[in-house]
Amino acid sequence: MRKRMSILAGALAVGLALTGCSSGGSGGSDPDNPDQVEVFTWWASGSEKAGLDALVEEFNSQYPDIEFINAAVAGGAGSNAKAALASRLESGNPPDTFQAHAGAELSDYIAAEQIQDLSNLYDELGLKDVFPADLIERLTVDGKIYSVPSNIHRANVTWVNTEVLESAGIDPMKAPESIDAWISDLQKVKDSGVDAPLAIGTEWTQMQLLENVLIADLGAEGYAGLWDGSTAWDSDGVKTAVDHYDQLMNFVNQDYAGLDWDAASQIVIDGNAAYNVMGDWAEAAFTQAGQTWGTEYTTWPTPGTDGVFDFLADSFTLPVGAPHEEAATDWLTTISSAEGQKAFNTVKGSIPARTDADPADYGEYQQSAMESFANDTIVSSLAHGAAAPIAWSSDISSAVGKFGSDRDKDALIQALVAAAESALS
C-alpha cells in the first residue's frame, strides 16, 4: 500500500512550493516550538478560504497561545493538495494535521500507518454522543476512528438560476423527476437561446455529475453496490447512466476543462447557464454574490435522486510523527466543538456534523440539508473520497476526463470495469 502512495505522489506531485504561508507570514512550522500547529488543507481561496478563516478565528479564541500555520494548497476537490501531501508523508515530513474526506479516501493512509487512531479523543470529547450514528459508522474502520469531521456536505445538489428557467417557460421550483425529464428541460432552455444551459468544470466536477447520474439510474442500493462489487460496472443500469451522461454533455459549456467549481457556479450566478450540479459549498458562492435562495436561485436534489443524500465530510487527521501533536489535538477539539462547527459551517455552506446544532443558526438551504441528512437514504460520494480509495477514484477520474475528449461510451464503460477490477482484486 505504501508503494501505491509513492506512485500517486510521483504521478501527481506538484511540489511543496504551492504550500501557503502561515497566518503570521512565516513559511512552514518550527518543530521545536510547541505553541504552533500546521494545518494542511485545500481551502485556499473564495468561500472555502472564508470558511477556514472563520474556523481559525474560533480556534484563536479557544487557544490564543497557539500560532496557526496555514499550509493550504490550491486546487478544487484537493487534487493538488493530495499530491503534495503524499510527497510529504512519504518523505517523513507530515503536517500536524491534514484535511481529508471522511470514508474510503482514508484507507490508503490507514494501511500505510500514516495516521493515528483517534478513538480515545472521541471518548474524551463525547463525540459519539453528538455525532449521528450513521456518521460514526462511516468514520469507523475495524473498530477505530481516524478523523474528526468539521462538517457534512451534500454532493447531489442541482443549483438553478430561476430567471433563466422562467424565461424558457419552466417552473424553477418544480424539479424534473428523472434524468430523461431533465434532458427535456435542458433542450427547452437551449431552444430559448442559452447555448450551454448546464455548467460544469474540470475533471472532478465531471466525475461528480456522473456519480449523480449513476445514483439516479441505479438507485441508492445499486449505486452503493458499485463499491463492493455487487453491482457490475457493465450492467444495464450503468450503461443507461453512461448514455444519460453522454446526453447531458451535449448541453455543457465548451470551456469546462479549464474551469474549477467556483467558475462553473459563477456561470449560473451570472445567468449564462440554468443549472450546475455541485456540492453545497456552492451555497456560500451564491450568498456572497448577494443572491437569495428561493428568489434568484434555488436548489433541488439532482433529478432522479430525491430521497437520497450523497454524503461527504471534510475531516482532519492526526498524522503519525506530527511535530506538534498536542496542538494538533487542540485543533481537532475546536473543529469538533459546537462553537467551531457553527463558525465554520455558517460560512462554508455545509451543515454541522453535530446533532445538537440549532437549525435557526443556518440559512434556508442548510436547514433543508439538515432535514434531508436526518431522513433520507445516505450514500457515499465518489468524487469526494467517501466511496472509493484514492487510486480507484483517480482511475475513474482519468476515464471521465478522456470521455470528455472522445465521447466514446464503450471505452468509458471498459475503463470503469477495469478500474473496479483493479481496486477489488
Automatic annotation (TrEMBL):
The keyword Lipid biosynthesis does not apply. Gene3D superfamilies: Periplasmic binding protein-like II. The keyword Cytoplasm does not apply. Transmembrane segments: none annotated. Keywords: Signal, Transport. Pfam families: SBP_bac_1. GO terms for cellular component: cell envelope. Residues 1-24 form the signal peptide. It is found in: Cell envelope. Belongs to the bacterial solute-binding protein 1 family. Part of a binding-protein-dependent transport system for a sugar. This is Probable sugar-binding periplasmic protein. It comes from Paramicrobacterium agarici.
